[in-house]
Amino acid sequence: NCAALLKIAEQFKKNPPRRDTLFLFTDMDARLHAGTAAFYSALEKEDKNADVEARLEYWSQETAFLTNMNTLIQGSNPLSAPTTPHGRELIKRLRTKAADYAYLSRAHVMDLREELDTLKQAQGDHAARIQEIEQEIELGDVEKDRWNELRRYLGKGETAPEVQDLFARVLDAVRHDTEIRMRELKIDESMLQSARRIKNLLD
């Protein structure tokens, strides 16, 4: 515990060892050992792309990039800047989300078709369920086609009234992902600033 370490440090101060000794107190163990991570990050010197200053620069760039993209997301026309880096990235993420939803719709329809084939070969009266599945398959095919239609529109950097409801869904999904990443960056900033302070103390 801290008291024991301080007592040992006191003895080391009175009787200095031949080699340098560092007493380290860390916290935030419950947050993926953030204190210890900050200390070891401060020691990185061999890889210039991984040292504290390089990672702070990358953090700054990513934060600015996501801030610009989030401004588009929150705006009245999220597709208004297709030629900017953050505008292109937003469209790419929207298309990826639309592709994910299209895939899920297709997978759901395939599961329904398997169930339908099984029921048609099974004994007993399954007419009601068969009819229900056939209707679900029809709706699923329509939904899948609509998702793919949205992907085509987004490929041109636009949307359309007939898929506006789907566009709102993918926009909400991308907004959610972006907000999560920005919260992570806040934590990263705290860790990197701690690592910088430790590095300055050790230099």
Instruction: Encode the helix/strand succession as letters.
Output: HHHHHH
Rg from Cα: 28 Å
Mean pLDDT: 89
Number of strands: 0
Strand content: under 5%
Tally of contiguous helical segments: 6
Q: What is the makeup of the main sheet? A: none
- As a percent range, the share of helical residues equals over 70%
Broad shape: elongated
Poorly predicted tracts of residues: none
Distance between the termini: 27 Å
Given helix and strand content, the structural type is mainly alpha
Structure overview:
This protein has 203 residues and is mainly alpha-helical. The protein has six helices and no strands. The mean pLDDT is 89.
Q: Mind sketching the topology for me?
A:
Layout: H1 2-14, H2 34-43, H3 52-74, H4 85-121, H5 127-155, H6 164-202
List key phrases describing it.
203 residues, elongated, 74% helix
Nutshell version of this structure?
The protein is mainly α.
